[in-house]
Design a protein that fits this description.
Helix content is 58%, strand content 14%. It is α/β, with parallel strands linked by helices and 284 residues long. The protein folds into two domains: 58 residues; 216 residues, Vaccinia Virus protein VP39 (Rossmann fold, 3-Layer(aba) Sandwich), CATH 3.40.50.150. It has a seven-stranded mixed sheet, sandwiched between helices. A hairpin with a 3-residue loop joins strand 1 and strand 2. Bound molecules: S-adenosylmethionine (SAM). S-adenosylmethionine (SAM) binds next to helix 1 and helix 7.
Length: 284
Amino acid sequence: MSIHNRCHTDQLFKNQIGFGVTTDLSMPHSIGDTNQARSQTMSMDFLTKNRIVKSGFVRIRRRIQDLSPAERARAKEDHAAVAARFPFLAEDAFAKAAADAENRLNESHAHYIANVGHPVHAASIELAVFMDVICNGLNPTRVADLGSGFTSFVVRSFAKGSTSGVDVSSVDDHPEWLQKTKDYLTGKDVSAQNVLLWDEFSGSDPAPFDLVLHDMGMMDFRAQTLERVLQLTRPGGVVILDDMHKPEYRTFALQTLEQKGLEHYSLRALTHDNLTRYAYLVIT
Ligand SMILES: C[S@@+](CC[C@H](N)C(=O)[O-])C[C@H]1O[C@@H](n2cnc3c(N)ncnc32)[C@H](O)[C@@H]1O
């Protein structure tokens, strides 16, 4: 799917009528043209309403899925367990670090979702804050940020402030999106080195990473690449899987993690956002 399709659905609906027939939206020249234009406007109204109704249904379905008692119970238990493993994720320590991270990131995030990435696609402020906290807590020297965008800025800001020489790769399956990320990083005065396409990155057989975020591409691609992503970290390294609120992806990912015997925890208590999204943490 092209970036045009992903980013400009509104424009797509404005330009398409019926079964994928692209219309000329220039000014009408005759009564026939006027009638045609009127019927096009009506079709557009219908399509716009249809889209609004559909997105309303998606939102309602998400809210219902978000009520899953099993995932809610797991959120609590897993938070306690992951905090025992990583004390900087315990309630008070996390709250303090998250407040500090939010102070630093809020303005840039608001600007990013208003001007660069749509809020539905860009990382939530909750995930951005979590990435900042885990970077500062784990002190990784090699980080892979799969699914470039605002998170690339977060991990690269951490790298810039670190004295231990942090190596970051930001990766995407989409060339145009990757270019947007490079431009954004350059504008934010953080390194824009190692911003790579997935095939190039994966094929280069990179040295093991300490921390990997998997937030790349559409959900089918996310699932297809999961196995490879889980091989990118060193033993004991950490992988963050975002968008685990999606039941089909979550079922697939959890089956994969269980088959591989990898320790994993819901981060719902720490990353749940207003679109019901949340992440999981995996130890490899
Ligand atoms: C969930 S997004 C990744 C978000 C990224 N980690 C961030 O912090 O902004 C997944 C994929 O969508 C694409 N993408 C990112 N932002 C987008 C946007 N605003 N519109 C369309 N596609 C986007 C990229 O190809 C990316 O791999």
